[in-house]
Amino acid sequence: MEMTIISDDMRDFIEGLPKAELHVHLEGTLGPETVLKLAARNGLDYPFKTVKDVENALNNRTVGLVSFLDLHYLFVSVIKTREDFYEVTYEFLRTCRENNVVYVEIKFDPQFHTERGISFYDMIQGIDEGRKDGYKDFGVEANLIMCINRERTVESAWEMMEQAYPYRHLITGLGLDSYEKDNPPSKYTEVYMKARKQGYRVTAHCDVDQEDSVEHIWECIDLLKTDRIDHGVNSIEDPELVKELIKRDITLTACPTWRSPYPEPRDLERIRKMYDMGLKVTLNTDDPAEFTSGYMNQTLIGAVEGSGYTKEDLLSFMRNAFEGSWLPQESKDRYIKALNDYAVSRIRRLH
Ligand code: ADE
Ligand code: ZN
């Protein structure tokens, strides 16, 4: 579909819309200034000295998950202390407020941090304090999803589960992310079974256009028994899978933006298809500081410009997000009521 420039009225509607985001990596929210600030504060001998250096590195990536992740981890390596985790979490929630995101589920990667000598305690305390102060100061509610880095060993995932055990009341969900090639969901069937027994909600990345993406989605729902799939765009290639995802009421957290300032038309078209087929799909930013596509407002503006979504469609995406969230039912009801009130107030204003 042709790109259209949205009206001021639609922009205003998007900015005012109460939003939920279910797929964003804490470590993907580090802008160039933060990367440099933390590298200096922690006394690192860091390859990037200026904002321009960081921007050049972002611009020189090749397309694809591997190139993205290689640079991503170089940025994330600047996080060292409890205070760093606190600040990054708190500042992200400030950005949520600016985008009228009222509820967010934040992913983070414990193994990458603990392998660098940071204790699980410092990491989780910093994040949790940032989340609590963010709620107090910005009114943004956040829940946490710890992710297994899938390229590591299964033993390392078990170790992470053990380290997390004393803090499980602070962590709502378990996810699976990072390098997908040769690391199918089935590698973690037993870990997921245990996690569900321990009370975690579960999701997993099935990233876009990976080898065996469709098979990986089947494994998630049949073996890991995930409540959600992160991305899952390739599901539309298999009608049986689409039917099953709808039957089991699985939420798919799509991320329409990648590297360019506007969503790649390829993904936008497929996300539109997911939506039209009746899949419970949501729109998310994934790694907002590294995708150069901005946070939720900009992401929704891009989706409307690329796919022609109406206000009703945007309300449906947000309803899907609140319903597919891991909030208690009474909180979901409260947020969905606020969304419906917003819809009514905007419709009145239109007439
Ligand atoms: N870790 C951080 N961002 C990720 C992404 N987009 N896909 C997989 N793993 C990630
Ligand atoms: Zn992701």
- Rg is 19 Å
Structural class: alpha/beta
Fraction in helix: 40-55%
Q: What is the third-level CATH name, the topology?
A: TIM Barrel
What small molecules are bound in this structure?
A: adenine, zinc ion
Average pLDDT reading: 95
Binned strand content: 5-15%
How many separate domains make up the residues?
1
Number of strands: 9
What's the name of the CATH homologous superfamily? Metal-dependent hydrolases
Distance between the termini: 29 Å
- Biggest sheet details: 5 strands, parallel
Give the helices and strands as they follow along the chain: HEHHHHEHHEHEHEEHEHEHEHHH
Q: Specify the number of helices.
A: 15
Shape: globular
Label this structure with key terms.
351 residues; alpha/beta; TIM Barrel; four-stranded parallel β-sheet; 15 helices; 9 strands; binds zinc ion
